[in-house]
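Database export, one record per block. Field names are fixed; values are copied verbatim from the stored entry.
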Amino acid sequence: MRIPELLAPVGSMEHLKVAINAGASSVYLSGKNYGARKFAENFTLDEIGEAVNIAHMHNVKVYITVNTLIKEDELESVVDYLSKLYAIGVDAVLVQDLGLIELINEYLPNLKIHASTQLTCENQLKLNYLESKGVKRVVLPREMRKDEIKSLNTNMELEIFAHGALCYSYSGQCLMSSFKGGRSGNRGTCAQPCRQKYKIEGIKKQDYYLSPCDLSLFGQLKEISELNISCIKIEGRMRSKEYLAVVVSNYRKALNKLKSGKKLESEEINLVFNRGFSQGQFNNSSKRSMRAGHIGLKIGKVISSSKNQIAIRLNDSIQSIPEKGDGLLIIKNNNDYGLEISQNPIITTLNHFQKGKNKQIKDLSRKNKVLIVKKVWQNKKSTFNLNESAVYLTKRNSLSKKVKEIETKGNSYVKSKLVLTFSIKNKFPKLKGKLTLANRKEVECEVIGNAPFEKPIKKSVDRETIKKQLSKVDNYPFQIIQININYDGTLFIPISKINELRRNLFEKLEHEVISLYTHKYKKIKIKHEKANLEETKPSISFYTTNLNHLRNIQNVKRVYLEIPPKDDDLDISSQPQHNLNHMINFIKEAQDISYDKDYELIWKWPDIAHDKLIKVLNKVRGILNKMNYNLPIMSNCFNGEYGPYSMNISNTATINSLENYKILTISPELRKRDYEEIMKYCKNPEKIEILVQGSVELMKTRYSLLSKKELKTDYKNSLIDLNNNKHPIHKSISGEELIIFSDCELSLLSEISHLKEIGFSNFSIDGRYKDDDYSKMADIYNLALNNELNEKELLKISPKNMRGNY
């Protein structure tokens, strides 16, 4: 059994102390820039230094999130920032940008790298690549399942999320906030469009279709300990200190109990912010949240309500019995009613209540309990009949006391072991300390007092008095395991001088511990040479899932062919049976059609490909190869031939690092200026491609969109937002993922001449899931490459267009 590291989120200095006291073995936090939670309070560089020193004194590791995509004009400043973090002594940095990994290896080779969940490392191929780049730990996607984690083979540490909010999309693969709200999750400013209500075309009900319940693997810690997982992560840098204290302390207790084979049951984690809990994809049991906000702990249901009181039949398993000052939330269908309990409630039995005898019971462990809450004038009137409503306990006043204790009286999970030796040197007191840290490093210091021992006038200072004074640890996280006193107890010295001696030693030990981690800062200037652009004949690539496009399309250099699913419904709830024949026949027919065409046919694999799917795709590939149907592959596995825009390429460092690729499509999130900066410094402009037309993939998800009941209705594959925009939805060939596309197309037709001028020569059009006429889009862009704009013809094929972030 392996007890994993417990990693806690920290959004401020106050939160840091709470996390340490609650029992975190490590924390993650962010500076003011380059972190994926830009709206958290976050830390200045000086505050990071202070936080790192405090944490290291408490044997707690500190990881800094530098997990946003880095733009070309930021490369030098971010590397210099990393150099400052290395000098401060941070234990590792979390990184999303592949180019930044390359730069760290070049300029700061001793700085440990953790690959952020934003990198979407869902398969062995990606892990192999990151391991080859010296990455020490990978934060796996929240969508990974237990059996998939178990099958991974790597020397890197694996980290998983265990508690907190779930994104509907795979992290790093969501562009909805960016394209619909102008705020990018890949740049730390997500507007959380997944927490809004939507409709599915054909279903009248508006609901939180994109908002999963929060994750809690509190009950699965034993399963986790039996896997090759090094660290479990709590989500919530923007949550309250109450959330942090309660969640971290409960997970620490549960992990400690696990060592002796025991299991902790706790309701407390339900009483701090949650949207309802599920085990997420870990055990393939995710579910949709009922509301965007806090829901609390379900305690029972209303069996009777009147103008003056509410009677609630409590679940027998509930330990947290509501009290005066606690908060309740009563939910029925789409209605809810919240109140604070203003008077001491009555707890009686169901039998008493049914007989009209509301007799208070003393034994709260009894079954069939009924809670009677008086309604007072401060409570607003409910707008619906409360009977048969579900009841949730949302606020627990007694928890505040516990949080306060953790905040003020707690201490670190693992204390450093200290051996003290007291002696006299030339009449002056000498104190030596040997401190052993949790990582087994040792620090030794000694101090000599500034006042000598004297012959006593009245009374000497005995050995026990000195030992008593040396036993005080003040606020230092030390555990004194031994005190050696080399003194016969016959002399005198003021007690204040012994205390001063102890404090001086502790200060010196603190300085030595901090210096174990710090390094000398060196300013970094990266090599950034301007590119010599050579004129290259421009060309067009075309994405498709339509075999008729292959028949009709002309004057394109490459066609990226993705196999559409045989059944393009929204049901991803059951285990998919991969249809080998469908895939083989589709590729065979495609290659037969393309045999005498001028374009190169490239098989585009799904952007999300777990190992189970990769085995199937390789099997299909092997069968096709034996039949002499050989195709190059488009894949975002970090080590392929053709790279899609889902690789989130936003700078030349990333382009240079992906040296095996022939063509790389850069991120469509970038602005005009960003495209210009990349071309200014790109060594290989001929391998860069830019998406200029098509519906953008806004979300890729492994979470079901509809319930089993809703799947039986007459729905259509379209998500409708609050502005009545319809977003097409399609299923991946895996049968396990859904892809939500933008309602209007990205279109840079009017910018083609400028893009050519700054050095772009490869332009792509995304025609997947489009009708037969969409192949004419290639003709429109070919004309544009020859300086002939035909926007009227464009609007006939794509009437709704945008320029995105351009």
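Remark 1: The radius of gyration is 31 Å.
Remark 2: The longest helix spans residues 495-517.
End of record.
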